[in-house]
Write a structure and sequence with these properties.
The protein is an alpha+beta fold. Helix content is 32%, strand content 16%. It has helices at residues 46-60, 69-80, 84-90, 95-103, and strands at residues 2-6, 13-17, 22-24, 31-33, 38-43. The strands form two sheets. It has a three-stranded antiparallel sheet with strand order 2-1-5. Bound molecules: zinc ion.
Length: 134
């Protein structure tokens, strides 16, 4: 998985592969927690992520050509201060699904073992009485 993330200090955009704990801004060097970064797009392959990034960079530079929808979304998300969940929903992605994919199965279900029923009280021997002589 690849994500296009943005630096909140210098507004640099870069592509992060996978889900690292932290990532450093290539421009100002600020170390960021990946989870806290604004993700403008998440893609399966590196080329798609690079395309989104370059489209956003071009737009910022004043280039008003064909823009990827994601780039437009990202700009809007930044302007209106939407959080990640809203942004993902607006992008047509299921926020819950993305969250699930990120955190993985964290179900810590413990099966409470119900105590097995105690054997019924009282001795229940099978041989009762003296052996009858034959
Ligand atoms: Zn930066």
């Amino acid at each position: 998985m690849y994500a296009v993330v943005g630096c909140s200090d210098c507004e640099a955009l870069w592509v992060v592969s996978g889900r690292p704990e932290t990532t450093s801004c290539p421009r100002c060097g600020a170390r960021r927690r990946f989870a806290k970064l604004k993700k403008f797009a998440e893609t399966e392959d590196a080329d798609a992520a690079k395309n989104v990034r370059s489209a956003m960079v071009q737009r910022r530079a004043g280039y008003d050509g064909d823009l990827d929808d994601f780039a437009t979304m990202g700009e809007r998300a930044m302007d209106s201060g939407m959080d990640d969940g809203e942004f993902l929903t607006a992008s047509g992605l299921d926020a819950d699904e993305v969250a699930d994919a990120g955190s993985g199965p964290t179900a810590t279900r413990r099966r409470g073992r119900s105590r097995s029923a105690r054997p019924s009280s009282g001795p229940s021997r099978t041989s009762t009485g003296p052996p009858s002589p034959r």
